[in-house]
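Title: Comparing notes on inverse folding

I've been comparing how different people in this forum approach sequence design from structure. To keep things fair, I'm posting one structure and asking everyone to reply with a full sequence. Here's the target:
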């Protein structure tokens, strides 16, 4: 059968395939004839992940590593913070009999530790639903006691960094938070904690949970705040993310250093920040460092040094994965200043996410 005897649709498909092959062949030849610098510029397709998300994921990786250590070491973990239904099941468990399916599910579904405590605190002190939580009473109480307005960090979203901020808030004014919870309990017509309040109160009296809160807060002081200052602080609006390879190499080096020697973050000397922070500058919240060291002396926060090491190792693994685009010998590392300028990208996705959030609310 001759080509011109084919149905029109099949003939068109053959013609299109032939044309595509010819264009590819001609294009490849033309590309090969270009000067090397022009050809490289045309081939320079590069990606870089949002710096803010790199840090957020590093906190998540650190928290997972810290929690995993308890299972591996057999050390006494933070107190269980079960929801209402699971709490009843767990309380009725006995050590004399094998666990039932319901009891196993209750244990698996129940969480504990620093992230859980900050989540509970966020739900109580800054609930996304204005009709729930104690945010109004909280703001009035803390402004009266501290002399200035206070808003608790929003932990209702997926930003793991907000949990570090919440941990810092809880530790700096720990006695005041305990007093506030007792105030909420005692001012009710029928005195007593509800389930959320009781869980948070337990968490803030639990030394292993306080150890995890301290680790979260210290990580932000050591890494997050100085890192964020470099990538989204004042004057960074024109920073090209492709120029941040040296910064991320510095992050890897610093996080590895703390993982190997956690004691760096627990030194009482005034100038401990020179080794403790990513940029060697003053602690973002010196009063937090003072509070943690005081708690460490008073309560002997269990396994604090070990947990810092585990957290930073987990964070280091995550940093390596989420900053792989800057690997030595990679496309960004071997690019020229001119190439990076031509492919300029902001250091965070703030603008895109702001527009997305705005469109979602319309």
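Reply #1:
Here's my take.
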């Amino acid at each position: 059968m001759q080509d011109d005897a084919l149905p029109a649709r099949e003939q068109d498909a053959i013609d299109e395939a032939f044309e595509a092959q010819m264009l590819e062949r001609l294009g490849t030849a033309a590309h090969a004839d270009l000067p090397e610098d022009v050809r490289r510029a045309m081939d320079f397709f590069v990606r870089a992940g949002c710096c803010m998300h790199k840090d957020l994921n590093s906190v998540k990786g650190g928290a997972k590593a810290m929690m995993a250590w308890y299972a591996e070491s057999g050390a006494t973990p933070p107190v269980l913070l079960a929801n209402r239904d699971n709490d009843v099941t767990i309380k009725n468990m006995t050590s004399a009999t094998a666990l039932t399916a319901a009891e196993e599910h209750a244990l698996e579904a129940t969480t504990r530790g620093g992230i859980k405590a900050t989540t509970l605190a966020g739900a109580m002190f800054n609930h996304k639903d204005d009709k729930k939580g104690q945010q109004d009473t909280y703001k009035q109480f803390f402004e009266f006691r501290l002399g200035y307005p206070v808003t608790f960090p929003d932990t209702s979203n997926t930003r793991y960094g907000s949990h570090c901020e919440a941990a810092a808030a809880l530790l700096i004014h720990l006695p005041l938070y305990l007093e506030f919870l007792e105030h909420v309990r005692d001012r009710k017509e029928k005195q007593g904690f509800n389930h959320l309040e009781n869980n948070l109160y337990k968490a803030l009296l639990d030394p292993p949970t306080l150890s995890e809160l301290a680790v979260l807060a210290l990580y932000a002081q050591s890494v997050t705040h100085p890192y964020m200052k470099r990538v989204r602080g004042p004057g960074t609006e024109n920073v090209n993310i492709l120029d941040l390879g040296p910064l991320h190499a510095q992050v890897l080096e610093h996080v590895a250093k703390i993982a190997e020697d956690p004691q760096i973050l627990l030194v009482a000397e005034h100038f401990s920040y020179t080794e403790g922070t990513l940029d060697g500058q003053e602690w973002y919240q010196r009063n937090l460092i003072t509070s943690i060291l005081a708690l460490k002396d008073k309560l002997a926060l269990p396994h604090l040094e070990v947990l810092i090491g585990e957290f930073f190792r987990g964070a280091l693994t995550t940093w390596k994965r989420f900053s792989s685009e800057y690997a030595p010998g990679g496309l960004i590392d071997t690019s020229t200043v001119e190439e990076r300028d031509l492919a300029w990208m902001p250091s965070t996705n703030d603008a895109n996410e702001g527009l997305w959030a705005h469109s979602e609310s319309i």
